[in-house]
TrEMBL record:
Domain of life, per lineage: Eukaryota
Residue ranges occupied by any Plastocyanin-like domain in the UniProt entry: 44-158, 172-321, 432-565
Cofactor: Cu cation
Signal peptide limits: 1-35
Naturally occurring in which organism (per UniProt): Salix suchowensis
Enzyme class: oxidoreductase
Cofactor binding note from Swiss-Prot or TrEMBL: Binds 4 Cu cations per monomer.
Main localization category: secreted
CDD domains listed in its UniProt record: CuRO_1_LCC_plant (cd13849), CuRO_2_LCC_plant (cd13875), CuRO_3_LCC_plant (cd13897)
Localization per Swiss-Prot or TrEMBL: Secreted, Extracellular space, Apoplast
Protein name as it appears in the record: Laccase
Length: 583
């Protein structure tokens, strides 16, 4: 059901003349007059799902795995009523949506809301503002997002077209995922009990299907149609829980045109790398001999000596032309593409450095908050009351942990952080998250064991409305260096630089890109390296920043920003909805 929106606000800055202002006013009014409100019902429920010859009672939305694809236009509003008929607490996060003033709809459990308890419900309502491309939604409670996820496609405003030289004839969302021959909640609970690393997944998937290279899977392999001569848009999402992934298509080049619902200057590549949480939009042309070609994805594994799922998932790009029909292409064995080596950081670096944003950029230049966050793993000693053989199965009888600036983030359990902030409830969190590491050290060198054990706490960092923020995100070699996909809720940010080794504040700023840096919501911080991001804190609320490898956020690799209200209603967070779940 869709209804036209009747409420809109228009604000025009810096018009050079009355007539220009009038034209902009009319254009904005026309665009917003076409905006719609989309209503959806999500029922969280247990559903039998058979993969790899085995049936699991998986948690799904509306009995679908993956869940439903939501399609909107820029400027539209979504109203999604979530009813929890499963046995677990659940929330839904709308990954990458700015949620301007609507932080109560962001979704991370105990951050912006208490969970929806079994038998409960909650309605998420928010408007898409100034974003176009591919985002996605997923559960943000424990490891439920292993099966509770789906695509969120944002088209240009009605009557507008894509800023591509050739408009795509077809569009296909490709969600890359991970599958366990077990209940993912049991997997993470067992790891939490033992203190060791969780079991690796048993398969990767395209739109929930493992593909031809796995047992009992070939009959359901995803088919992606293409015709000779046409150009199609592939919307690739890394929905995997814990694994960055390479993606490629046999014999076809990919033209990257967008990422994280922002357009980029087009560039051509044969391979993508997406960290969990990231999206990439690519154009693909039907310029090869009509046949069948494998699309393939497998792990990019940057951590040293860490177990991982080394299998390969496939879908099939299948030509539908009359020539192919005459040749009976559907019976042809698909052509397999080469894939980078699992640890091919050079290919990742080349790909990552190719992103440049389009259009007018608003990169902050004068910085109010200059922050430096170390990120990485850690090891806690076995507590005296724990059984060392069964509860301390990390390296040398320890328990895994993770941190930012030596603080391992602990979620509250009686209130959400946003609720505690809004109601001024004391004792739920503090605002003393350090702006810099408590101790300076050789971050990517041989780190002293005295730095392996972080301090646990619910520490937030406070930001004034409108402050201009720069964050250096520095990987560390504590336990093992690793490529970390760091996601910031409620914001897009500019990635102005990346590099390897320890960030040098004297020399590295000379390489900052302040002209056309990519605008993302998730940055893949290089293994044994660093990334610098900038944004303006123009969205009041409490916003989680965390590693999107779910095993790492489970261990505490997170923090949150508390952004104060500005002046007046339009710079203040909305009041909480009446049906906001209680803890």
């Amino acid at each position: 059901m869709e209804v036209s929106s009747s409420i809109f606000a228009i604000n025009i800055h810096h018009c050079s003349s009355f007539f220009l202002g009038l034209l902009l006013l009319l254009a904005s009014a026309l665009s917003l007059a076409n905006a719609k409100t989309h209503y959806h019902d999500f029922v969280i429920q247990a559903t039998p799902v058979k993969r790899l010859c085995k049936t699991q009672n998986s948690i799904t939305v509306n009995g679908m795995f993956p869940g439903p694809t939501l399609e909107v236009n820029n400027g539209d509003t979504l109203v999604v009523n979530v009813v929890n008929k499963a046995k677990y607490n659940v929330t839904i996060h709308w990954h990458g949506v700015r949620q301007i003033r609507t932080g109560w709809a962001d979704g991370p459990e105990f951050v912006t809301q208490c969970p929806i308890r079994p038998g409960g419900s909650y309605t998420y309502k928010f408007t898409i503002q100034g974003q176009e491309g591919t985002l996605w939604w997923h559960a943000h409670s424990s490891w439920l997002r292993a099966t509770v996820y789906g695509a969120l496609i944002i088209h240009p405003p009605e009557g507008s077209s894509y800023p591509f030289s050739k408009q795509p004839k077809r569009q296909t969302a490709l969600l890359l995922g991970e599958w366990w021959n077990a209940n993912p909640i049991d997997v993470v609970r067992e790891a939490t009990r033992t203190g060791g690393a969780p079991n690796s997944s048993d398969a990767y998937t395209f739109n929930g299907q493992p593909g031809d290279l796995y047992n009992c899977s070939s009959q359901d392999t995803v088919i992606v149609p293409i015709d000779s001569g046409e150009t199609n848009l592939l919307r690739v999402v890394n929905s995997a829980l814990n694994q960055p992934l390479f993606f490629t298509v046999a014999n076809h080049q990919l033209t990257v045109v967008g990422a994280d619902a922002s357009y980029v200057k087009p560039f051509t590549t044969s391979v993508l790398m997406l960290g969990p949480g990231q999206t990439t939009d690519v154009l693909i042309s039907g310029d090869q001999s009509p046949s069948r070609y494998y699309m393939a994805a497998r792990a990019y594994q940057s951590a040293q000596n860490a177990p991982f799922d080394n299998t390969t998932t496939t879908a099939i790009l299948e030509y539908k032309s009359s020539t192919c029909a005459a040749k009976n292409c559907s019976s042809n064995k698909p052509i397999m593409p080469p894939l980078p080596a699992y640890n091919d950081t050079a290919t990742v670096t080349t790909f990552t450095k190719s992103f440049r944003s389009t259009g007018k950029n608003f990169v902050p230049t004068d910085i109010d908050e200059n922050l430096f966050f170390t990120i990485g793993l850690g090891l806690n000693p076995c507590p005296p009351n724990f059984n060392k053989s069964s509860q301390c199965q990390g390296p040398n009888g320890t328990r895994f942990t993770a941190s930012m600036n030596n603080v391992s983030f602990v979620l509250p359990s009686n209130f959400s952080l946003l609720q505690a902030h809004h109601q001024r409830i004391q004792g739920v969190f503090t605002t003393d998250f350090p702006a810099n590491p408590p101790r300076k050290f050789d971050y990517t060198g041989n780190v002293s064991r005295s730095l392996f054990s972080p301090v646990a706490g619910t520490k937030l960092y406070g930001l004034k409305y409108g402050s201009r923020v720069q964050i250096v995100l520095q990987d560390t070699s504590i336990v093992t260096p690793e490529n970390h996909p760091i996601h910031l809720h409620g914001y897009d940010f500019y990635i102005i630089a990346q590099g390897f080794g320890n960030y040098n504040p004297r020399t590295d700023p000379s390489n900052f890109n302040l002209v056309d840096p990519p605008l993302r919501n998730t940055v893949a911080v290089p293994v044994n390296g660093w990334a610098v991001i900038r944004f303006v804190a123009d969205n009041p609320g409490v916003w989680l920043m965390h590693c999107h490898l779910d095993v790492h956020i489970t261990w505490g690799l997170a923090t949150a920003f508390l952004v104060e209200n500005g002046v007046g209603e339009l710079q203040s967070i909305e009041s909480p909805p009446e049906d906001l779940p209680l803890c």
